[in-house]
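Work through what follows:
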Amino acid sequence: MRRFGDIVAVDGVDLAVQEGEIFGFLGPNGAGKSTTVRMLTTLLRPTGGRAVVAGFDVATHPAEVRKRIGVALQDAAIDPLMTGNELLDLQAVLYGIDRSRARLRAGELLERVGLTAAAHRRVGTYSGGMRRRLDLALALMHEPVVLFLDEPTTGLDPMSRLTLWEEVRYLNKELGTTVLLTTQYLEEADQLADRIAIIDNGRIVREGIPRELKAQVGAPTLLVAVPDEQRERAREVLVAFGDIRPTAEGTLGVGLRDGAEGIAMVVRSLDQAGIRLHRMELNEPSLDDVFAEATGHSLEGARSRLLEPAAGAPPTKGRRRRGGRK
C-alpha cells in the first residue's frame, strides 16, 4: 500500500512474479503502475504491506535489492553533456565493477543495443529511441537478475519500439533475465508478457496469461459507427445481439453472441430500424475488452480501430480484423 496524505495511490496490490518470466503491468495513467514500481525498486517506501524482490525485503534490505535489480524509468534523467561511454563507466564505478570488466561489459552492451557507433557522442545528440536504448544498457551494466522497465517505449516511433521489444525478448530468452514491464500499450503487453496484471485505481482487477484472459471475455466485439442522432436507437437494436461494451467515443460496441455469423442479422436489423451505418468492424477479444469487462470502462489511450472514411469516399460495410499474441 502507498498513501500520499489522504490519497491511496496503491491499495492491496498482490503480485507474484516468477523467476525468468516477463510480467506485464498494465493500466492507464494514474492507476498506480509507476508508484508500485518505485516501491519495488526502493525509490519509494511503502506505507503498508510487504514487498520482497530477488529474495530481499525492499523496506528492511534496500541495498541488497538494489544490487540485484536494473531499473529503466520513464522519466530517467541522463546527463546530456556526457557520452554513452562515460555514462557506462560511471555506472560501473557506482556498482563497484573493476575497470577491465567494465570496459568489456560496456562494449558488449553498446553492441547489443546498437549504439557502438554513437558511444563517443554526447547524449544530448541522441534521438529519443537512442536514449531509451542507452538507459536499458545502463540498467544492465551490473547484470541484474530482475529488470524493471517503466513504460519504456512511451513516445518512441514504431521502429524504435520494435527494436526495444526485441532487446527485451533477447534478455529474457537468452540471458534468463526476469522482467517486470509497466505499460499502457495493449499491444506491448500482448506481444511481450508471459503473464499480466491489470491495475485500475490502485487495485489489481485482473491477472493471468493474456490469451486465457481474452478467452474468458468470450464473444468478439462488433464496433459500429452511426450518425450521432441515431446512436441511442442503434444501441436498442444492438442489445438484442449481445452485451453492450465500452468503446471509444463515437462508436458503439456489442459482444456479438453469434460471432461473425451474426453480422448479417445485425446489418439487417439496423437497416429495418432506419439506421444509417457508416462503418462496422469485428474485433477478436483483446486486452482492452478484458479491461473493460473488469472495470466498466475502456483503457485510457486504447482507441477504436474503426477507420474514418477518406474524404469523398462512400461508406463501406467494414472489415474483419484478427489479432493477438498467441
